[in-house]
Amino acid sequence: MNLARHSITATNPVHIFDTRFDADCQIFTTCTPAGFAVYQVCPFKLLRKRELTGGTLSAAVPLHTSSLLFLLGGGRSPLYPPNKVILWDDAVGSEVAELEFRERVRGLACRRGWLAVALRRRVVVFQVEEQVTKHAEYETSENIRGLVALATAAYSTLLVIPGRQMGHVQLVHLPPCREPIPKGPPSSSPPKRPPPRPSKHPVSVIVAHDSALTTLSVPPSGRLLATTSSKGTLVRIWDAHSGNKVREFRRGTDKADIFGVAFRPDESEVCVWSDKGTVHVFNLMSSSNTQSSFSPLTPWIPLPKYFSSEWSYAQYRIPSQSSHISISTTSRSPTEDVPDEERCVVGWIRYSSSMNEKSSLNNEPESSEPQLIALTYSGGWYRLALPKSGSSTSPTSPTKAAGSHARRTSTSSVSSVSSGLDVKGKGKEKESREKDNKASQCSLEEFRRYGRWDGWG
């Protein structure tokens, strides 16, 4: 009997080539074979869509919540050449400018009035006003991933790009970012003053890792910097002014491809996500992160670095594909674009009860809390709540928190822990962490579908 080979695929799958948040995590854009769309993050809502014919896009980068977007062609049949950046004004529904380079564009980052374009070995910065003018150009090491990050808050100046050597980071200070144009009637409060200039000249290069960089992330203020490497086990947080390492977190022990790191707006926590399908949340302000029971021994016994690591205090496992699958003998077309269903992107929001229709109808008192929004490339929109016991309330800085944690470690009792140190210590650590993880899981508050604008989702 001749049995044909069957493939298991999602029922009527959604093809998403790219999805990303704006700088303030108020909207997100998504690119599909039909064009691109702009959604409101929370409450989830489709704001507008553009159906494009003649090719596909690899990215639609929003300039905050304005009508301007930067488009990149991509896929097997790109709408635009891969060496061009298209400035699109969605208010008029057409292209208003384009930038052409001699090579493929690898990545983009933007803020009010500025655009940074990452190429293979350089980053070019443009000022975007009535006209687009070139501001500066910086050499980097090989930057296949197109890493580039910009601080986006008012008066922030930081631009972060790969250094000229592998694992190094360059910190460039541009002219201050202007304030957003206020909406509605003018405020009666006095205008915000720019922060004072630092007394010391900020550091320009940080030796972050000994392997290739995979992500660069900064909060809107530009005070901190998060880096990860191709090893995929550690996340390092740096002071962007002094260049000192503030904290170091362990995602896991096995190698992973880290997709991104996002700072909570008040810079008290960070979340990390990778190809393992798990979102990890770390606390920057306190020592509520999970730690090894052997960590108090590290000042006196030369234990491996593994035992002094800080692990995430909260996690969430994102399903890799739709729960509805079908078995079919149909094969994919060799010219069809295949989306990366394992990929996702995560952002922070401030969720209030007024965003919930049920609570607003019942006149419940309004409350707010930080939550996570996870977007998968298979079309899933997840709203996640953090464990109540893990979120930080202390306003201390990450630097002070790291120092207090070190003092607590040095004054802990050694005798209470030393009895548990044996050959199987590392295995017991994994077992205890698995038990802790069950009690520190983020809870799924809401799930929606996105990626198609024909009424589905």
Automatic annotation (TrEMBL):
Disordered: annotated span: 177-203, 388-441
Coiled-coil positions: none
GO cellular component terms attached to this protein's record: cytoplasm
Keywords: Repeat, WD repeat
Compositionally biased region (Pro residues): 177-193
InterPro entries: PROPPIN, WD40/YVTN_repeat-like_dom_sf, WD40_repeat_dom_sf, WD40_rpt
Pfam families: PROPPIN
Family: Belongs to the WD repeat PROPPIN family.
Listed PANTHER family: WD-REPEAT PROTEIN INTERACTING WITH PHOSPHOINOSIDES WIPI -RELATED
Protein name according to UniProt: Uncharacterized protein
Source lineage: Eukaryota, Fungi, Dikarya, Basidiomycota, Agaricomycotina
